[in-house]
Amino acid sequence: MADRKNLLVIGCGSVGQAVVHKVAQHNDEFGDITIASLHKGKCEQAIRSAIEKGNVRDPSRKLVARELDAMDADAVARAIEEARADIVINVASPYTNMSVMTGCLKAGAHYLDTAVYEEPDKLNQPAPWYALHEWKRKEEFEKAGLTCILSIGCDPGMVNVFVAYAQKHLLDTIETIDIMDVNAGSHNRFFATNFDPEINLREILEDVIYWEDGEWKVIPHHSMKRTFNFPEVGEQTVYAMGHEEVHSLAVNVPARRVQFWMGFSDHYIQVFNTLEKLGLLGIEPVEVDGCKVIPIRLLKKLLPDPTTLAAEYRGKVCVGDLVCGEK
Predict the structure, then answer these.
(1) What is the residue range of 194's domain?
(2) Less packed terminus of the chain by CB within 10 Å, N or C?
């Protein structure tokens, strides 16, 4: 690994395309960048977009597209070696986390992702989620001398850093941590998700897990809500929701309560509830004319592709932490 200094980005959906633009802006540090996905055409499109928008800092460095099945750990390892990459950013589906981590261990590359691993046929897993899979591999990465940074996006990720800053610089003790995410913008579609619909709708569908008074608590989704006056976007209604950062912060920060809140419009809640009642959020196969169909994957195919939303998006987003304690 010592003679390698390139980057491999795996996944090129809505999040992956944003990552391509951002890393291209710093390709003087990342070196040659390979973007890999099941759909090579999406990678090529993201590269063209980064070039057209002037987001490639060093035009002498390569931007390469390739096809890759991220569920195949050996294929991931080969992609790392062929790209001569020492860092892998995994922004493919969270279903791929474990295979990409294995590929990194095989090929000797550092690993980053933006969401906790999920098993496609399971919901409502016990807390803390990271202890089920990722944390079990900590020793492997340590022995290999490799860094593995989990869930380092906006939320989770940025919001974890905010809590660490508050703990280190602002407060002596922390009483409560409320992570709040509000999208006050509009994409002018009847119903859509901002990233992979299957993953997004699964996390909203699950029971809400939060930490309070030394134990994990579980409540039904959309059963707890509050209003809060946010910077820039004003007063908004947010609902308690299960989310990754609760599971890492509650283990690593001594707080009485850790909870995540997401903003949803009345329209969004109404449509979501209708989809749930119709069974279209189901993860178990149903038979249709002799074919096995998983309802939520059918729905994913019918909903707008998140990569098409940006052109008409207008408005603001507010994501942050309300950290209360004593100094």
Answers:
(1) 158-326
(2) C
